[in-house]
Every structure is written in C-alpha cells, then in structure tokens.
Amino acid sequence: MPLAPPVGIVIANRNNATFVERAIESVARQTVRDLTVVVVDDASTDGSDAVIRRCLARLDDRRFRYVKLEANHGQGGALRRGLAELDTPFVCFVDSDDLWYEGFVARHLAAHLNADFPVALTFCDSHIVDRNDRLLAGTA
C-alpha cells in the first residue's frame, strides 16, 4: 500500500477500567503509524481515569491524547468530543472493551483507497472473547 493518509481514532470509555488498557494497547500496535488517537473518558467512577493515565504514561506515545469529561455525556457525546479533536481525513471509533488486530486500520484504509471500487464506510466482523482471550462466539 502506498503511504497511508493520517487516521484519527476515538476510544470512548465509561466505567470500563477492566478492559480500556487493552483497547488502548491494541490501537498502539496498529501497523499504520500515522495515527492521532483521542481517548475520551466519559466521567467514569470506577478508576478508569487512573488506568488510562497510567497506560498512556507507560506507552509515552505522542499520537495519543486524553480528554477527561467531568460530566457524563453518554457514548455519543464522548465520541463527538473526541471527533472534535481530530482533523484527519479518516476516522475510526473503538469501544473501550474492544481489541483490534494489528492490521485493522490498514485493511480498512486499503478498502477506502481502492480506486477500482471506492467505499465510503467500512465495518468488521467480530470475535467475542473473555478476559483470557478465549473465543466465546464470532462472526468471522
């Protein structure tokens, strides 16, 4: 694939301290490197703020920004707040309990950049796993 355009990613979190770190790490491992990632915490009360701050400090990755909302705006509000931080031609949204395979963004970009069959929106199948990554169900 030619040089990939920049991609913005919003990770919205609300009271998901158990899984948000893994979601952030899966985004950090993407093969596409030109990313701007906004992690938005939607006024969590379960310690998510500390988990997110520790994870981002450990990653020490300038591609990541953190927005802590003091009041609950709901998932849509958190996503809109993250989107307002981005100026990229492509945007992806990831829930804080989701994990992406390393090539997730690259595969979606390839579909969007296909000159023979351009697309406006892509989505993916999913695997449902437990906290030990044991497959529970899946559509892929």
What does this structure look like?
- The chain is of the alpha/beta class.
- It has a domain at 7-102: Spore Coat Polysaccharide Biosynthesis Protein SpsA, Chain A (Alpha-Beta Complex).
- 29% of the residues lie in helices and 24% in strands.
- It contains 4 helices and 6 strands.
- The chain has helices at 20-28, 48-59, 74-83, 104-112, and strands at 7-13, 35-42, 64-69, 90-95, 127-129, 135-138.
- Helix 1 links the parallel strand 1 (7-13) and strand 2 (35-42).
The largest β sheet comes out as: 4 strands, parallel
- Given the structure, what is the number of helices? 4
Mean pLDDT over all positions: 92
| CATH class descriptor of the domain at 7-102 | Alpha Beta
Cα separation of the termini: 24 Å
Low-pLDDT stretches:
none
Strand content: 15-25%
Q: What is the N-to-C order of secondary-structure elements (H for helix, E for strand)? A: EHEHEHEHEE
CATH superfamily of the domain at 7-102: Spore Coat Polysaccharide Biosynthesis Protein SpsA, Chain A
Helix-and-strand structural type: alpha/beta
Strand order of the largest sheet: 3-2-1-4
SSE diagram, text form:
Blueprint: E1 7-13, H1 20-28, E2 35-42, H2 48-59, E3 64-69, H3 74-83, E4 90-95, H4 104-112, E5 127-129, E6 135-138
Parallel strand pairs: 1-2, 1-4, 2-3
Antiparallel strand pairs: 5-6
Brief descriptors of the model:
single chain; about 140 residues; alpha/beta; Spore Coat Polysaccharide Biosynthesis Protein SpsA, Chain A; 4-stranded parallel beta sheet; 6 strands
Short description:
With 140 residues, this protein is α/β, with parallel strands linked by helices. It has helices at 20-28, 48-59, 74-83, 104-112; strands at 7-13, 35-42, 64-69, 90-95, 127-129, 135-138. It has a domain at 7-102: Alpha-Beta Complex (Spore Coat Polysaccharide Biosynthesis Protein SpsA, Chain A), CATH 3.90.550.10.
